[in-house]
Amino acid sequence: MSVPTELGYTAKHEWIAVEDGIATVGITAFAAEALGDIVYVETPEVGSEVTAGETAGEVESTKSVSDIYSPVSGEVVEVNEGLENAPETINSEPFTGGWLFKVRVSEEPADLLSAEEYTKLTEGEN
């Protein structure tokens, strides 16, 4: 499984890319694979505030329901509306078309893992 090196990761299997103060958040391929076929996604509402480390939504698969944790604090400025009708995009494109939401960052994210650190973490979970 390929882990993009340009992203940051959390131990709870979210990824983040920050550009010009806007963070794009998604779940990793490892998480998508562990969940199985994703059938529903609940994202935070545009305009709502999210807090780093706190629940920001959930992903439901044929196996289970899992919380999504925000890796950053700030205001949600966009959600991936395409997931409403095609949540399985997270399974097929977790790092591209399967992104979940975007946040105007109020403070820089801390405690993110590098791709190498995240790969080591997930190797222990297989």
From TrEMBL:
Modified residues (N6-lipoyllysine): K63
CDD domains per record: GCS_H
GO BP: any one term: glycine decarboxylation via glycine cleavage system
One cellular component term from this protein's GO annotations in UniProt: glycine cleavage complex
Domain Lipoyl-binding, residue spans: 22-104
Gene3D superfamilies cross-referenced by the UniProt entry: 2.40.50.100
InterPro entries cross-referenced by the UniProt entry: 2-oxoA_DH_lipoyl-BS, Biotin_lipoyl, GCV_H, GCV_H/Fam206, GCV_H_sub, Single_hybrid_motif
UniProtKB keywords: Lipoyl
Keyword Cell membrane set for record: no
Segments crossing the lipid bilayer: none
Essential cofactor(s): (R)-lipoate
Co-factor note (free text): Binds 1 lipoyl cofactor covalently.
Quaternary structure, from the entry: The glycine cleavage system is composed of four proteins: P, T, L and H.
Family: Belongs to the GcvH family.
Task performed by this protein: The glycine cleavage system catalyzes the degradation of glycine. The H protein shuttles the methylamine group of glycine from the P protein to the T protein.
NCBIfam families: gcvH, PRK01202.1
Protein's recorded name: Glycine cleavage system H protein
Organism the protein comes from: Nocardiopsis metallicus
